[in-house]
From TrEMBL:
Coiled coil: none annotated. Homodimer. Pfam families: PNP_phzG_C, PNPOx_N. FMN binds at residues 49-54, 64-65, 71, 93, 128-129, 172, 182. Residues 159-201 form the Pyridoxine 5'-phosphate oxidase dimerisation C-terminal domain. Binds 1 FMN per subunit. This is Pyridoxine/pyridoxamine 5'-phosphate oxidase. It comes from Roseovarius aestuarii. Gene3D superfamilies: Electron Transport, Fmn-binding Protein, Chain A. Residues 23-148 form the Pyridoxamine 5'-phosphate oxidase N-terminal domain. One of its GO terms (biological process) is pyridoxine biosynthetic process. NCBIfam families: pdxH, PRK05679.1.
Length: 201
């Protein structure tokens, strides 16, 4: 096992990830929980976009979206994804690769209910990733949905969470003269133990 200390110290990579995110929350100006989420479509063409991570659990990394969106369809089709968190103020990043499952139960209901009313209505109104004729058409749909759903809309059946259950997590920190520090945690399956190695910059 690679010897680690300082910011890399810990016996659980998810604990280290939570600690780094907590530190970033104190220094990043906007969206310290922003992640670049990578998926692949059925033709093998990669896709990447920024989304907001909502939780780092013991079981993985959780975010929410429209299941009918491009990312939702790609995640359902392949069951695999990767993400990157990068913090300029800390000069660190975390890379994750793993298996994907839906979070479509009470946890998703609770998060949906915590969002602003406008965001909850927007989730109903937006056919995410589908063609849109104009912004006016979208706003008209929001108005219609508002009249239909009122002030306490339930979570749409097409909207919920995804959890990336990691098989690989890499922690990277900037080093002088581009001699960066990199440690990667790998396992062949979720029930297996993590193997930790130091990587060349």
């Amino acid at each position: 096992m690679a010897e680690r200390d300082g910011i890399f110290k810990g016996e659980n990579p998810l604990d280290i990830a939570r600690r780094w995110l907590s530190e970033a929350e104190a220094t990043e100006i906007n969206d310290p929980n922003a992640i670049a989420l990578a998926t692949v479509d059925t033709d093998g063409m990669p896709n990447v976009r920024m989304v907001l991570l909502k939780e780092i659990e013991d079981g993985g990394f959780v975010f929410y979206t429209n299941y009918g969106s491009a990312k939702g369809q790609e995640l359902d089709a392949t069951g695999k994804a990767a993400l990157v968190m990068h913090w300029k103020t800390l000069r660190r990043q975390i890379r994750v690769r793993g298996l994907v499952e839906r979070e479509d139960g009470p946890q998703a209901d609770e998060y949906y209910a915590s969002r602003s009313l406008q965001s909850r209505l927007g989730a109903w109104a937006s056919s995410q990733s589908q063609e849109l004729s104009s912004r006016a058409a979208l706003m008209a749909k929001v108005t219609k949905i508002t009249a239909q759903k009122g002030v306490n809309p339930s979570r749409p059946p097409f909207w919920g969470g995804f959890r990336i259950r990691p098989l690989e997590i890499e922690f990277w920190a900037d080093g002088a003269f581009r001699l960066h520090d990199r440690f990667v945690w790998r396992r062949d399956a979720e029930e297996k133990s993590w193997q930790i190695v130091r990587l060349n910059p």
